Amino acid sequence: MAGENIKPVAGLLLALNFCMYVIVLGIGSWAMNRAIDHGFIIGPGFDLPAHFSPIYFPMGNAATGFFVTYAMIAGVVGVASAIVGLNHLRAWHSDSLPSAAAAAAIAWTLTVLAMGFACKEIELRIRNAKLRTLEAFLIILSATQLLYLAAIHTAATRRQTT
Q1: Cβ distance 148 to 81 under 8 Å?
Q2: 148, 85 Cβ separation under 8 angstroms
Q3: What confidence tier does 159 reach under pLDDT thresholds 50, 70, 90?
Q4: Helix axes 7-38, 129-161, angle to 10 degrees
């Protein structure tokens, strides 16, 4: 596949995205665990609170539940995308490009969706340091995942023009 000079850039972005998605999963898992451990207690003899939400998080604000849920989904798909991207990077052939590009595009769209909830959470202001870190990682990931997508598509475009 042409575009051999783009391969190291794609590899660097792939490694960076993989590490960042793993960190997103770690922080998101912490937030989910804390929400499960310190959320509403529901059982025999307990009434539901007046404003019950199944995605209630004791830290953060009203957007935190949606934000953490979509951040974890984006993290899992992003890690899977990095694994497929590693296979493409190893082969670096046009036959492996469609699966890597599709997985990367899906991961990017889910990351952008989670970033939208991060922006809403930033707007609502009440959150702790770990949630701010998660927001920052998702905002950065939305850019680096897009750059990775552009890098692997640039290599494919250069092959077609030569």
Answers
A1: no
A2: yes
A3: low
A4: 150
Report the distance separating Cα 141 and Cα 100, nearest Å: 17
Q: Among positive and negative, which fits the CA dihedral 89, 19, 81, 161?
A: negative
Question: Does pLDDT of 60 surpass 90?
Answer: no
Q: How far apart are CA 109 and CA 121, in angstroms?
A: 19
128: amino acid identity, one letter = N
Q: What is the pLDDT of residues 106-141, one digit of tens each?
A: 999 999 999 999 999 999 888 889 999 999 999 999
Query: Three-state SS for 127?
Result: coil
What global pTM score does this model have? 0.88
- In whole angstroms, give the CA distance from residue 114 to residue 38: 23
Other C-beta atoms within 10 Å of 109: how many?
14
What is the spatial distance between Cα 18 and Cα 14, in angstroms, rounded to a whole number? 6
> Residue 21 and residue 8: Cα distance in Å, rounded?
20
DSSP secondary-structure letter at 47?
P
Instruction: Note whether 1 and 92 are within 8 A (CB).
Output: yes
